[in-house]
Amino acid sequence: MQIWLPPSEGKHAPTTGPALDLKTLYLPELGEVRSRVMRDLQEVSSSKDALKILKVGPKAAFEIEANTRLAEGPCAPAIDLYTGVLYEALQPSELPEEALKKIRIFSGLFGVVRATDPIPNHRLSIGVTLPALGPLTAMWRKHLQQVLEVPDEGVFDARSGPYRQAFPLPKTASVIELKAVKLNAFGKLQVVSHFAKYWRGVAARELLRNPAQDPYAILAGLSRRPDVKDVIIDGLRVTVVVA
After folding, report:
1. How many other C-beta atoms are found inside a 10 Å radius of the C-beta of residue 2?
2. Could you tell me the CA-to-CA distances from 73 to 1, 14, 17, 40, 119 in Å, in that order?
3. The dihedral sign for the CA sequence 159, 165, 169, 171
4. Are 242 and 229 in contact (CB under 8 A)?
5. How many Cβ atoms are within 10 Å of 206's Cβ, its own excluded?
6. Cα–Cα distance between 213 and 226 in angstroms, integer?
7. What is the spatial distance between Cα 85 and Cα 83, in angstroms, rounded to a whole number?
8. One digit per residue, pLDDT tens: the chain, 243 residues?
9. Is there a contact between 73 and 121 (Cβ–Cβ < 8 Å)?
10. CA proximity to 147, closest of 112, 121, 118
11. How far apart are CA 25 and CA 118, in angstroms?
12. Burial 168-196 (b: 16+ CB within 10 A, else e)
């Protein structure tokens, strides 16, 4: 089963590493469109309206500056670049090399990459509209649908909404989705997005560590954890009820 992940706003900016080589990235046939996104992003990031167009605050200034030198900046494997709740729960440094081959990371800048693809520090949400290219979600959907194939082995889809819109999985695909809920003060189940990121990371880690086992049995087994009240499996949808 492949694991499809979103990127993360949090990153470990590499200080050493090779320069970007688009030919080495997953789906190299996307090289030309990736080059166009890079050119547009570099131009925007050098403008006075960069923060507004890229929908970020002043704290992102370092990454916006990194956008202006994408081709020259040092690169690190995508799985090492991204941080944040999901990636901390995934614990990629503890996963075997074979497991990393099962990961695909979706990106506003590159469309989709493998976990081991070297990419530079940058900041570009897929929800952004670039002046020369328009809305990135629609642009990437057009190009990804031409080249990206859904694996027969199935997908654990841990992507957030905008990244799912960039490549909607067909209804015929074997796809597992997970959400996390918690009982509120009125005894009703309430979705909590922060918990969802964490539990998607945990679930992805367990699926990658146990590729030969039934994925639903692995996910049901999360109910044995002290921080989980229940795991509800309804068709292809899995709900973790957080304690």
Report:
1. 16
2. 33, 9, 8, 17, 9
3. positive
4. yes
5. 16
6. 22
7. 7
8. 999 999 999 999 999 999 999 999 999 999 999 999 999 999 999 999 999 999 999 989 999 999 999 999 999 999 999 999 999 999 999 999 999 999 999 999 999 999 999 999 999 999 999 999 999 999 999 999 999 999 999 999 999 999 999 999 998 899 999 999 998 877 788 887 778 999 999 999 999 999 999 999 999 999 999 999 999 999 889 999 998
9. yes
10. 112
11. 8
12. eeeeeeebbbbbbbeeeeeeeeeeeeebb
Structure tokens given for 5: 């992940």
User: Which amino acid makes up residue 159?
Assistant: R
DSSP 39: H
Which run of H or of E encompasses 157? Answer: strand 155-157
Between CA 103 and CA 107 the distance in angstroms is 13
Q: What is the pTM of this model?
A: 0.94
Residue 139 CB: number of other CB atoms within 10 A? 20
Separation CA 172–CA 203 (nearest Å)? 23
List the structure tokens of 186. Answer: 């009125």
Tens digit of each residue's pLDDT (9 = 90 or more) over 188-199? 888 877 789 999
Q: Concatenated DSSP letters for 60-109?
A: GHHHHHHHTTTTTS-EEEHHHHB-SHHHHHH-GGGS-HHHHTTEEEEETT
As a whole number of angstroms, the distance between CA 156 and CA 35 comes to 29
Task: List C-alpha distances in Å: 102 to 92, 150, 215.
Answer: 12, 12, 14
- Give yes or no for a contact between 201 and 88, defined as CB atoms under 8 angstroms apart: yes
